[in-house]
Amino acid sequence: MDLLVVAAIEAEAAYVPAGLPLLVTGVGKTLAAVQVTRTLATHPHRDRLTVVNIGTAGALRDGLAGTFEIGTVLNHDLSAEPIRRLGLDPRERLVIDESLPTTLASGDLFVTDPAVRARLAERADLVDMEGYAIALACEEMGVPLRMVKHVSDNADETAHDWSAAVDGCARELGAWLHDLVESDGAARS
Fold it and tell me: What pLDDT is recorded for position 189?
């Protein structure tokens, strides 16, 4: 299997093992969708490629900490119900791996408001700003995806300290990738 590691910013990917291909998308769903789709559309070995999205995420419930592999991702800032009432499928929920219980909510909103956090916690465990777009791009391009997030903050007023937590999160994500490569014998092409 060939891997393509995808992260939103360089700081989240600071400890990606040497030799693994890396795509840095930029912040937010739009940049992530464009960059991943462009890369997958032109990748010479897309038929044997697996995307591994790494990054930080806010915890939507107290006590969540550490590294989580995501099973389902939601597009949380889409008006899904009104779209559904129009008879259209907004595809706001994508299942990456049914066996993984962690749900990630993605949106272009940097969550710091306790009311927003509580509302999102009714449907998800973690929140980020790119995961849904990366999952949708991979689904549309027929490329398998693994999504791994490390909790950086509590998606509340402490989220403003995110930049101080990124390096520690990146170290944990780099270690997770190292273990993946060692256990799966993933190609570093």
Answer: 44
